[in-house]
Amino acid sequence: MDKKTLLVAEHIDKRFGITHAVNDVSLTIAAGEIRGLIGENGSGKSTFCQMLCGIYTIGGGTFTLDGKQLHIRNQVEANNEGISIIVQEMGTLSGLTVAENIYLGHEEPFMRMGVKDTRAMNREAQKLLDSYGFGQIKAGAMIDQYNFEDRKLVEIVKATYMKPKILVIDETTTALSQNGRLELYKIMDAVREDGRSVIFISHDLSEVLAHTDTVSVLRDGEYIDTIESPQVTEDDLKRLMVGREIGSAYYRTDYDDPVTGDTVLSVQSVTVPGELDNISFDLHKGEILGFGGLSESGMHEIGKAIFGASWDREGTVVLADGTKINDIPTAISHSIAYTSKNRDNESIILNESIRNNIVLPSLEDLANHGLLNGRKLTSFADEQAKNMQTKMQNVHQFVSDLSGGNKQKVVLARWLGKGSDILVLDSPTRGIDVKVKQAIYALMADLRKQGKAIIMISEEIQELLGMADRILIMKDGKVNGEFLRNPDLSEEDLIAKMV
Amino acid sequence: MEKKNKSNEQSKLRAFLTGDKFKAVLPLIGFVIIIVVMHIMTNGKILTPKKLRLLFSQIYYPTIVATGVFFIMTLGSIDFTEGSTLGVASIVISVLSFHSIPLAIIGGILTGAAIGALNGFFHVKFRLPSFIVTICTMYLFRGVCAYFTTESAVPASNAIKALDQDWLKITITLAVLTVAFFLFKFTRIGNDVKAVGSGETAARFSGVRTARVKFLTFVCAGALTGLAAFVNVIKVGSITSTAGNQLETQILISLVLGGLPITGGAKVRFTNIIVGTLMYAVLNSGLSILGYEPQVQQLIKGVVFLIFVALTIDRKALKVIK
Amino acid sequence: MPAKLQKLKGTRAYGYLILLAMVLFFYAVFKILTPDNFGSPANLYSYLQSSIIYSVGGCGLYFIVVMGLFDFAVGANVVLSSIVGVILSEHFGYVGFVVGCLGCGTLIGLLIGTLYNQLNVPSMIVTVGLMLIFECVAVFVAGGVKQTLAPELRFFSGAPGNIILAVLAFVLMYFILNYTKVGTYCNAIGSNEFTAKNMGINVKKYKLIGFILLHFFVGIMAILTVSYGTTMTALTGMTTMSRNFQPLMGTFFGVAFRKYGIPISAIVIGEFIISIIFNGFVALGAPTTIQNVVTGAALLAIVALTARGARGSVVK
Questions:
Q1: CB contact under 8 A, A105 and C180
Q2: Of B51, B159, C60, C173, which residue is most buried, by most CB within 10 angstroms?
Q3: Over the stretch A157-197, which tens digit does the pLDDT of each residue have?
Q4: Partners of A222 in the β-ladder
Q5: What is the CATH number of the domain that holds A359?
Q6: Do A351 and B203 touch (CB under 8 A)?
Q7: Phi/psi class of residue B264: alpha, beta or left (left: φ > 0; alpha: ψ in -120 to 50)?
Q8: C-beta atoms of B191 and A363 within 8 A
Q9: pLDDT by residue (tens digit) across B278-307?
Q10: How many separate domains does chain A show?
């Protein structure tokens, strides 16, 4: 390659508690290059870029831009060094005008002795918007007036007007219509023409291949390879993203253990506005039903819908005995358990003891004529926590002191103690180390044998393939594919239905 | 080296001062300190039987009110309506006391419960911060109270005034404390309220009917204030527009002095009520025995309040401090 | 027509339209109920004069409320600052009066902001504690006596003095919001504190600035308040709490209409609406004590309509 090197990342590392999100990643990007960055959920690609852009602190290693080592503490400093990012979520701030959003943190050029020249700022912002072809957006108007897509366009302007040396585009295209996407591709090309570089993150592999020069692949936080885009196919990329041999040992090994035909729970035409679109399926006794898809596919809402926790849910969730589940207390008293992906906020009360977390759903059962006996609660919690081999001093310890894996054990201990027959587990092994993962898989297999029904919602495809009797793949709030347990089923088959 | 040791010790001290253990015993230490200081400053005048009797006579109805507010603050919410509720309920009780005393008591409790229900409704249904809602309703019911007392104070019947007996007030107060303690410690109610206080979302996902728990807590706290109004009426006999003035501040300061973290949740203790109201009473009567003017008393209370909040608050429970 | 309205939606004009409709509605209601003693032009002018005092405080509170903070010490500071102003005016005339009010007000803001940042306690709690303290300080400063503003120093007590000062305050507010970083940053912090921090905004510094600005405006409000009423008595016992409400109502209007880009107009017109409702009840013959009831109910209605929490959000 004869192009000059623009960015060098050496031994970049990041841990979140026990999760090794980015593990010793080194790569270089040339000037005038559009680099695709791909990997499964949790592969560390977003975390990598957010360190580059000052959103997360760098755990280890160095970034060198144009021969200069970077020491970035926040996004503005990153901007000043010539790095900017367009993020997945809403990146504009309500209550500010369009121009204020574009120049937030960079007001200096418009300050005249402490006074902000708002008119000049609006004029410049409008010029920028016009030059990008986004003339329909008015610089002086409040950002709140505009819809999500227009706000994304403002973000694009904000991230690119200062002609950054490196532009990071993190999963932005999903929020854009076809027109918006075309605008974005044009901007990417312009950056390349200019001899600057783009890092482009997307799940849409055909899009990645069509608009990048090279593609880097990350997997489980590790750097795998970089390849020239024109020389590969989507299938090659998928193989690189997935291609691991590890893991199979944790999972169930049986492939011909039949599932009973007894329906325990039936979901009928469930719709949740903005999340789920007319979903129907049955769950059977002794079945592990897996749900897969991209994060925003609506699959995480499935768990809430079954548990009676969704807002404005339509359709019915009904048990074999005809009981309809419409709220959480009914769900719990009819033996449904739910563990959330958002464990620290929705599954567990952090500022509370292990004991009180475990006994909370079982208080009715533990009460004697409505009276609670503290000693009985403690011994109950102790027994359940120990069954799960929770590492703790005693059950009066606060949950906030525990590691991710042990928190999850407390969550599971609570529902096992409750004796729930239908377990809805959303991302049960998220942010959990290998040993606990193994224990959870073993537990699931065991529960299945006992005749309990499990819904496992997971962003990890291996996990779905390894554990589920049946897999439903979600896309845009709908079920887009159904697979039965089969040793020949591959990750590529599932991914094909996700994107 | 020495310097390092010193800074190490300092950080240890800081860890201790901000630690949970210290926070748990702080109210007791404070209580002892306040009693000792007051004892010395007043030359022992505060601990005479006569003064003690007076001191206790001041804490009956605040204790009843504080018990209800304790549950609200365990939720992590706050209530500024106690004073105005007490005023309105006292008026209702006084008027009804000419017909029948049981009716008066029921009327007072229902009035309190209704105001609590109004607070709870706006707080829960509209998802408005409780302090905004209760500040509004405080103003509203202060107005109601003033309206009915514009011409003259509202008198109560002689029959109800005849009930002004220590044993009755003690019985009511102890009964309220006992029942509340029992509910808090040995039934689901206490667990649910604490769970909402320490993690509302997770509590909801664990089957706690959070909206109902919050609403009913406000209703019950209002009802208790209504009951406290009865104790107030038998003591004062006629109701003026200032009835219950500043009671909300008194209760807030008392509970904070008792060590109740303003964030509510798992770290509340039932003893916060008792230690807090006693401490406030000792502080209050000590300051007046010492002959301080009301403004000086308020100044000292304000300073003590801020110090205790800063020491007892559970900052871990707050993601962003607003 | 509906299509045209649809197009207007979200623009400044739409915001003004709503406000205007509210003014007309309440005016019409009371005019129909009591045609004789309500709503003559002279009446309206006097409603406006009383409402602009609160509008000034409402403008100040906007800086704080927009960041999600609160301040219950506004009323206490109005009392304290106006007493300081009146006392200084006895020696230094207008200069003493204005500098006293503004200086004392601003210093209190500095104190509140610093304590809030240092103690790391919710602003609502800090300011409740400080309110108790400032009330006492005001009593000490006043020496327990009613302070009267000398008759020759009452330029701000009526038109045009009060209008001029209030308009100056609104212009200042407009300038700060639109022509300095402070306005932008306060809004940014309120919208998302984490993102704001990430954008390199020094959150603590701008919260402090917010409190200082608020209490500078409270200083102006103190000038107007004591000029309008000519006397000020310091009282303890949370009596100043009620002085927090009227400015707050305007602020809620401002926050609600922020999305139309017209917070200041919304504060001023909002206070005017409240004033119409108030005086409407008085015209109906309601006793003055019922005013508190109306204020409480009106504020409750305003927050219920404008400050509703998102579903599933944790509201304490």
A1: no
A2: C60
A3: 988 888 889 999 987 776 677 777 888 898 899 889 988 99
A4: A219
A5: 3.40.50.300
A6: no
A7: left
A8: yes
A9: 988 888 888 888 888 888 988 998 998 898
A10: 2
